[in-house]
Design goal:
Layout lengths: L3 E4 L9 H10 L5 E6 L11 H7 L7 E6 L7 H7 L3 E4 L7 H10 L3 E6 L17 E5 L14 H15 L4 E5 L7 H6 L4 E4 L1 H4 L6 H8 L2
Parallel strand pairs: 1-8, 2-3, 3-4, 4-5, 5-6, 6-7, 7-8
Helix pairs in contact: 2-3
The protein binds D-xylitol-5-phosphate and zinc ion.
Length: about 220
């Protein structure tokens, strides 16, 4: 199956987000990755539900919303109503992650769980069957343009094996430092979706199509 590419709008031109989303949609993206940061769980502040809502008419692609906020529970409904299709939360930011994943599914949305580079993969053990997507952070969240952490490859392999053994349809997405150089190894390790901010949006409007195509194996 072809790897799903989810360009992160964190690296897009914030003054013309609607246009940027239409451009990556036309360039062959499979999802739109939206990084939500609160200046508390991570040291940066980005996008809220009103922005997601304003962007919704610009593309029919699934909105892959990555919540880096604590707490996340009070905002789940707002992001669901704003038009997110997938909502991903961090167990490091939520002591009730099991319940949160169920709440997201109860809202009729796909539920994702994201883990930081310093979080042991075992945290996922009780969660595999409750999520539609697992997001492995291959940088410490907060900023775009950071270098891929090589130790992520073993973690991706481990999680990919677990998904295969369980026989679930879980998407295995990797986020941070993905570019033409790191993408092949990440896919060989078992990733089925890639987030790419810098590699897509900083390639120049004319190159979005090539940048997206180059990432797939
Ligand atoms: C980091 C975000 C990423 C980020 C990736 O906290 O979760 O989605 O936008 O940016 P690049 O692809 O530039 O590493
Ligand atoms: Zn992200």
């Amino acid at each position: 199956m072809t790897t799903l590419i989810s360009p992160s709008i964190l690296a897009a031109d914030f003054a013309k987000l609607g246009e940027e989303i239409r451009a990556v949609d036309e360039a062959g993206a499979d999802m739109i990755h939206i990084d939500v940061m609160d200046g508390h769980f991570v040291p940066n502040i980005t996008i809220g539900p009103d922005v997601v809502k304003a962007l919704r008419p610009h593309s029919k692609l699934p909105f892959d919303t990555h919540l880096m906020i604590a707490p996340s529970t009070p905002y789940l409904e707002a992001f669901a109503e704003a038009g997110s299709d997938l909502i991903t939360v961090h167990p490091e930011a939520d002591p009730h992650i099991h319940r949160t994943l169920q709440s997201i599914r109860n809202m009729g949305k796909k539920a994702g769980v994201a883990i930081n580079p310093g979080t042991p993969v075992g945290v996922l053990d009780p969660l595999y069957e409750l999520c539609d997507l697992i997001l492995v952070m291959s940088v410490n969240p907060g900023f775009g343009g950071q270098s891929f952490i090589e130790a992520s490859l073993g973690r991706i392999e481990h999680i990919a094996e677990r998904i295969q053994t369980l026989g679930t349809q879980t998407i295995l997405e990797v986020d941070g430092g993905i570019n033409a150089k790191t993408a092949p190894d990440v896919q060989r390790a078992g990733a089925t979706a890639l987030v790419a901010g810098t590699a897509v949006f900083r390639s120049g409007l004319e190159s979005y199509e090539a940048a997206i195509r180059t990432l797939r194996l």
